[in-house]
Amino acid sequence: MRFKQIWSTWGTVVVGLFLVVLGIMAALSPAPRCEGVPMTPGQTCVDRGRFGAERVNTYDEKIRTNRIVQWAAPAAGVVLLIFGGLRVARSRTAAAPD
Q1: What are the extents of the domains in the chain?
Q2: Could you tell me the pTM of the whole model?
Q3: What distance lies between CA 24 and its chain's CA centroid?
Q4: How far apart are the first and last CA of the chain?
C-alpha cells in the first residue's frame, strides 16, 4: 500500500522532472553521435545495445529521434508534474488538521 501511495504522489513528480531534464539534455545536444564521434549527413552508424544487439541508424533517423525526444519528453514531464503536484497538494490539504 505504501508503494502505491508514494508512486501516486511524489513518484509522478520525480518521473516528470526526469522527463523534463531528458528533453532539455536532448535540446542542448542536438548533433547525433556515433561511438562518441559527431556524425555527418548521410553517414550510418551501427549501435550496439547493452545485450549485444546491433542496430543500424542513419543520420536522419538519429535527428528524427532527437526531435521527438526534445518535444515529447518535456511535454509528458510537465503533464506528470502537474498531475503529481495536484495530488501532493490534495494529500497535504486532506492531512492538514482543521
Answers
A1: 2-95
A2: 0.69
A3: 9
A4: 26
